[in-house]
Design a protein that fits this description.
The chain is an alpha/beta fold. The protein has a 4-stranded parallel sheet with strand order 2-1-3-4, with helices on both faces. The radius of gyration is 13 Å and the shape is globular. The termini are far apart. Keywords: Kinase, Transferase. This is phosphoenolpyruvate--glycerone phosphotransferase. It comes from Lactobacillus mulieris.
C-alpha cells in the first residue's frame, strides 16, 4: 500500500468518527487518527500523532487536521518519522473524504493533490 490517511483533531470524538465515514468509501486504504490530549481533553498530543503515524500501514501519508496547533504537532511527528507525510491545509472532512475516495479507486496522486488544492483553507 502506497498512500494512507491520517486524521488529527483537537476533539477525540471527531478524530475517531471521521475514519468511520471514510472507511465507507475507502475500505482498502489505511486510515489512522489522533484526537485530543493524553487525557482526552481538547487539544492534540505529539505522542498520539506519532502512534497514529506508526500504526498506518502506508509508507506515504496524506495528513488532515482541524486547527493550527495540530499542524505544529504533525510537523514534529513528520520530522521523527521515516514515512513521507504530506500535511494538507484544507477543509478537514471534505478533503479527507475526497482523498480517501480517490485513493480507493487508484487515482494518480497528482490528480488527488489538484482536487485537494481546491479545498485549501483561505487566508493561510
Amino acid at each position: 500500500m502506497e498512500y494512507g490517511i491520517l486524521i488529527v483533531s483537537h476533539v477525540p470524538e471527531i478524530a475517531k468518527g471521521l475514519p468511520k465515514l471514510l472507511e465507507q468509501v475507502a475500505p482498502d486504504i489505511s486510515i489512522t487518527y489522533a484526537g485530543g490530549t493524553e487525557e482526552n481533553e481538547i487539544g492534540t498530543s505529539i505522542n498520539k500523532i506519532t502512534q497514529a503515524v506508526d500504526n498506518n500501514s502506508a509508507d506515504k501519508i496524506l495528513a488532515f487536521y482541524d486547527l493550527g496547533s495540530a499542524r505544529m504537532n504533525l510537523e514534529m511527528a513528520s520530522e521523527m518519522s521515516d514515512k513521507e507525510i504530506k500535511i494538507h491545509d484544507t477543509a478537514l472532512i471534505e478533503s479527507a473524504y475526497v482523498a480517501a475516495s480517490l485513493l480507493q479507486v487508484n487515482t494518480p496522486i497528482d490528480e488527488i493533490e489538484k482536487q485537494l488544492a481546491d479545498l485549501k483553507v483561505k487566508g493561510d
